[in-house]
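User: Structure tokens for this complex, please. No commentary.
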Amino acid sequence: MAAPMLRGRCLGRCWALACIDSGSRHGRGAATGFTSSGKRGQSFVAQQPLLTAQKSRKGEHKWAAVVGLEIHAQIASNSKLFSGSQVHFAAPPNSLVSFFDASLPGTLPVLNRRCVEAAVMTGLALNCHINKKSLFDRKHYFYADLPAGYQITQQRLPIAVNGSLAYSVCVGKKWRQVITKTVRIKQIQLEQDSGKSLHDELRSQTLIDLNRAEGQLRVDANISVHHPGEPLGVRTEVKNLNSARFLARAIDYEIQRQINELENGCEILNETRSFDYKLGCTVPMRDKEGKQDYRFMPEPNLPPLLLYDTASLPAGADPQQVINIDRIREQLPELPSETREKLIQQYGILPEHSFALLNEVGLLEFFQNVIKETRAEPKKVTSWVLNIFLGFLKQRNLAVNESPVTPSVLAELLNLLDRKVISSAAAKQVFEELWRSKGKTPSQIVSERKLELMQDEEALERVCHAVMEGHPQVVMDMKRGNPRAINKLIGLVRKVTHNRADPTVIKEILEKQLSS
Amino acid sequence: MLGRTLQEVSAALKQGQITPVELCQKCLSLIKKTKFLNAYITISEEVALKQAEESEKRYKKGHSLGALDGIPVAVKDNFSTSGIETTCASNMLKGYVPPYNATVVQRLLDQGAVLMGKTNLDEFAMGSGSTDGVFGPVKNPWSYSKQYREKRKQKPHGENEDSNWLITGGSSGGSAAAVSAFTCFAALGSDTGGSTRNPAAHCGIVGFKPSYGLVSRHGLIPLVNSMDVPGILTRCVDDAATVLGVLAGHDPKDSTTIQDPGKPFMLSSLTDVSKLCIGIPKEYLVPELSSEVRSFWSKAANLFESEGAKVIEVSLPHTSYSIVCYHVLCTSEVASNMARFDGLEYGHRCDIDVSTEAMYAATRREGFNDVVRGRILAGNFFLLKENYANYFIKAQKVRRLIANDFVNVFNSGVDVLLTPTTLSEAVPYLEFIKEDNRTRSAQDDIFTQAVNMAGLPARQPEQPGRQVVEHVVETVPGDVKNAQKQ
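Assistant:
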């Protein structure tokens, strides 16, 4: 039928266990005091008697939130999961619908091999146990975008279970500190996607597109709050979130909403909500009343899905007809965790930087190309790529492959810096120029703007001396221990030297001259 | 000519004794004459004549496609036929014209068969009388036989001559009547709990239910996906074998078919049964069995024994649970399969447009008859979370036990089982409708549906040389290859 989907369920107890001081939460700031306040919450419960929500005063109790994510990811395949029809992004409505997709009576599902392989690959990449036998089920509900009146999914026995994913979280002041966390993957299952419905309020109509190639990644979040040590609270489901940013905002909002409700003595309903992007809040979904009984039933038209490994492969099996898990494992590309580990070993960079390098498409390759062509230390390269280069990209909303600065160019710049031809400040200036005007090399810009560092140390010493002589008041401030005074002097020296002196060296000379 | 078997008329076509167009016209004319039987819902006259012309061209060139080339056939109206209305005898699909052919239909057409029309059935194949479709009931051709009319004259009722007509049985009654009345040489039916064998018995013809997975269900509008099979109705066993040879084999569009590709096969002309072991299941000797059927059953067993076969009593201990087990599983799958009929993509849609839910409800109430709706409700009940373990899972376990009963018997040296198909002969319609569909199904399916649950092949053979309205016994082979000609 539909575009093939992988559904992963992460149980986020480890992930989003944010002990929150009610009232002190703003947006992403929840991460502040992540681990430490968790511990505080724990000990708090142990030492003092628990008050019920109704009797508590606001702000007195610690809350723990539990978040589970259901991720719907469309498999990259040429045709759909159960029907032969094609998958194409942004095709005209209902132009890619086979008889099965339209649920014409008498049509039957036929499993797409590529989708199964993709599911196995995903399971292996997420450290899951691959079930050698998995089953398909029907999940029944009536909705206009579900022509058969049921969705084929894997509820009883999915294709992969019990996996994990390591990721980085920014904590601490200004999120400078990065720690590694692990989230559990409960299961991965193959399932049909439903169609798309567009509501035409004007004509009181709903238009249905059964192509099912939209929404390549969708997340539903299940959220509840409770006091640590107590049983889990009632959960709500927030559906159809399409970006990481909105996902985070929706979860944060919902956690706070639930806390507020409970502290005001209200109950949390086990309901489905959607996220209003404009208002930044979750709202109940009108068309879901009460809990649905999906009347799960085995899908009788699809026999159990059997997968093999090299050991269990039947003799003389047609390779076209069987899937070998070991073969798929061999074909897996290097996984991010492996790449990150290699980076850390090879270049001595920090773990959090290894995450950052892999999180942006093309950035790792850019980084590696720069490293190849420069003698500068990897730490320096990392810093330039992650802070300055990436910063420029983000400001201008560009992807790595849209950067006007190529790895060679940046490497050349870093070489100049490394040879101390220019100062750090000058290098930044050059970089800005490189970004604006293509075609010029760093060396060209340096000589055009006369940014070479003064090599003559004696001349610099004379300038420093002269500046100090010319500003006795500032010198007095310096002597009194005012830290800002020296910066003023440095600034003056730089002016005189047209910024061609390294501020670090200036500072050294000034301090030396002052003490003498 | 029309009274001949498929193989005989195929030979006649080859020899030029008759042309495909002549044959087709004769059948069409007979269909019109026997319209009162109500066996056909749609008569595809234009299509048939065109196909007959094509066939004639092939015969003239000497390039006939095979035994089915130019042969008039009929197809039960729950098989999808491209460009020809497919209704399942339901208001829900009145006017629905599918854009594709069911695999079995395509395979027949690829062999040059000529499609006379779509035959009548119980709505969505739910029933054992072919009386509950929206186009009215099918009349058993034997109601108009000399024997039956003479029998009726002995009991003066003084009513209208036609009021005491007999049912065909169901749910493939239209196909059975079409074959039995000589309007075609083979017909497709479907069999979920006996729907091919039951009407075959009542109409005095051969009804064959293949093993589950042997013949593709792609395009067969499903009743119970895990039990449905396409069925074959013909006037003799050899004809059924011919048709099976064309239909059987792997279909990539149906994931529940066997992997082997099909190939034609012929029944052995061997009439030596001395190596055969025939089992008589003792649980099938129920008090409701009519004396006539019981005597037939004995006669058949004795016939085999006298020809040298070993005839023994066997036990299928879980037989008494099969009706309830079948009903739980059948209604559950029905509830699921009928969920797609919501009036949105195809078929009937009501006039209400207040809300989607209101539209669904009205469409389904108007589109389905009581029988269908009753089964949907029952099925949904069994599938509720709180009931699933107690009903559906339990029924699946019992189903396994029933299937194992057969496995055990066939593993103990028995080749074939010999049982009745129906409790009694075909009854008059007026008597049949005294009980509701559910009761009738429960009664009439008793000998046939265990076989569906076990996925086994079974055949309702015609009674050679007899022209009376009696159902006959059915044989359940342990292995299709061992099917013997009677």
